[in-house]
Structures are given as C-alpha cells and as structure tokens.
Design goal:
Elements (H helix, E strand, L loop, with lengths): L1 H16 L8 E2 L6 E6 L5 E5 L5 E4 L7 E4 L1 H4 L3 E8 L4 E7 L9 E6 L5 E6 L7 E6 L5 E5 L4 E5 L7 E5 L6 E6 L5 E5 L5 E6 L5 E9 L6 E6 L4 E6 L4 E8 L2 E9 L6 E5 L2 E5 L4 H4 L12 E6 L5
Parallel strand pairs: 17-21
Antiparallel strand pairs: 1-24, 2-3, 3-4, 4-5, 6-7, 7-8, 8-9, 10-11, 11-12, 12-13, 14-15, 15-16, 16-17, 18-19, 19-20, 20-21, 22-23, 23-24
Length: 307
C-alpha cells in the first residue's frame, strides 16, 4: 500500500508540475519500411515509406500511424527525406526511383494540412537520388543527391532546382542539417565522414571542410538539429542513435541508444528523439524476403540534456 501511495504521489506531482508524460511507441503498420520522418510543433509525426511510396501520419499521442498521402495521390515513387516547414504550411518530400521502375526523381511539396500536392520539382532529366532535405532560416531549401555527390538548392519562390555544390567528397552524401551557426553540416553514409559547408551571403556555396568525430560513426544517415546547438544522428549500420556536439573542428559523439535495426532517420520534438528502423535486409536480401521483419515502430528516446 505504501508503494502504491508513493506512485500516486509521484504521478500527482508530475501532473501538477506540468511535466510531460513519456511518449509511447507508434505502430507504423506491417511492411512499412520507413526511411525518413519529421515531427510538427504539436507532435504530429510524418513518416515516409521507401517501399510503398506513401507518407504516413500519426496525431500526437496516437498509437498507430495511418497512410495520409497514397502513392498514386502524391505521384510518388519511393519516399525518402520528409521535412516539415510549418512557416509556409509545407511538407517537403524526396521521391526517388528505388525500385528502378523508370519513375521520375523529384522533390515534392505538399500542403501540410490537406496533404495535397502543391508543387513538383524534378531532378534534371528525372534522374539522381533525392535523399534528404534541410531548410535554411531564409526558407531556402537544400536537397542531397547521394550518388551524384551533389546538393541542390531551391530558393523561396524558385521554380526549379539549382545545382548548388558538387564535390567528389560528397559521393555518398546523405544527412543534411543547419547548425546554430547557420552553417551547413552534412554526412556521407558510405565513407562515414562529416563536413561543414559555408553558405555565402549571396547564397553560393563556400568552403567545404572535413569535421572529425570523437569516435567512429557507422553509416551516418538522417541528421537533425536539436535546437540547442547539437545534432542527433542515426547510425544506420551501427544500429545506434547518437547526439553530436560541435567542438571546433570535431563532433563529440555521445550514444543515446543502440540495438536498432538499420535506423535511417531521427526527428526531434522537445526533449524526445523519434527513431525509425529500416530493417533493410528484409527488403533487399532475398534470404529474408519470406521472413517476418516484425513490427515497424516509431520509437521515442529521451534526448540527454546538454552538458
């Protein structure tokens, strides 16, 4: 009885203090094979399926995500990068021909409230591999082309994508994010390297500088800013989610949680990091095609306080 009373008192104190209760995992449905996700200010989750070409959505507190933008409705191929832009009521989506069905590769803009396609920005000749997206403070959008070693730019009001930076060191570029210093940070999933890129006042690309990591990062994939000067990184091959702190020309890497099955992406909402698992072998390895990958979930993990 005394233990039960203590639990009630602790719960009451939490509610009175206004501290949020822990989030619960969100079921993405069978064979979702998610590749990217983002979260709105109200906690709504948006998840892209690389296998099904759909965008899923889960309301705050929901136990399950539902298909919100169907493949045909959104004229989508495989969905990769998904980024929320609430300032302009946009959901930006990378659509890439992962199944090699001859579908065009493009960056797409959907209405954040209605899920209706607003605009489509094809990659040149519909080729390449749109992987991830970042939005600068001025609203300029940047998208990575992994095999093309290329970053595209779309200015506010622009009508087509512009090649912004091409560099052989970026062959394998994946995650992209802006730091609190307004400089761009990218990673390379193939080489495990990280780079910082200057953005000139005229919008052009400046110096690209390598950044060391305090420990090896295995398959850096999706990367998102935490809002306090740090980044959260999904280590795809390493099965980890880590937080990175910029210390000069080094990223200090701290593991948040490990044991994930190919985590391709993370999203940050307050003091919570949302993580998804790609479980790639069940989609790409014939030996696993007839095996059950188990449930696909969006899993909440606490974000450690900045030291």
């Amino acid at each position: 009885m005394a233990m039960f009373r203590s639990i009630l008192l602790a719960l009451g104190s939490t509610l009175l203090s206004g501290a949020p209760l822990a989030h619960q995992p969100v079921d993405l449905g069978p064979k979702a094979f998610p590749e990217s996700l983002d979260v709105g200010k109200d906690g709504t989750l948006y998840i892209g399926s690389i296998a099904n070409g759909t965008v899923l959505r889960a309301a705050p507190g929901a136990a399950r995500a539902d298909v919100w933008i169907a493949k045909d409705k959104g004229k989508l191929s495989g969905v990769l990068g998904v980024v929320v832009d609430e300032t302009r009521d946009n959901l930006w989506v990378c659509s890439s021909d992962v199944s090699r069905a001859g579908e065009p590769v493009s960056l797409k803009n959907f209405d954040l409230k209605a899920g209706v396609l607003k605009a489509d920005y094809p990659f040149p000749d519909g080729k390449g591999f749109c992987n991830d997206i970042a939005i600068a403070k001025d609203g300029t959008l940047y998208a990575t082309d992994t095999p093309g070693a290329l970053i595209y730019r779309l200015p506010v009001g622009g009508t087509k994508l512009e090649p912004w930076l091409k560099d052989q060191r970026l062959e394998g570029i994946d995650g992209i994010a802006f730091g609190s210093d307004d400089r761009m940070y990218v990673n390379n999933i193939r080489t495990n390297e990280h780079y910082r890129i200057e953005v000139k006042r005229d919008g052009g690309s400046g110096e690209i500088s390598p950044i060391a990591t305090s420990r090896p990062v295995e398959g850096p994939d999706g990367m998102r800013p935490t809002g306090d000067g740090r980044f959260v990184i999904a280590e795809n091959r390493g099965g980890r989610v880590s937080v990175a702190t910029v210390e000069g020309d080094t990223l200090k890497i701290e593991t948040i949680k490990e044991g994930f099955d190919n985590p391709p992406a993370v999203a940050v909402h307050g003091n919570t990091v949302w993580v998804i698992e790609a479980k790639s072998k069940y989609r790409n390895n014939p030996e696993f095609n007839d095996k059950d990958p188990g449930p696909f979930m969006a899993t909440p993990v606490p974000l450690p306080a900045k030291k």
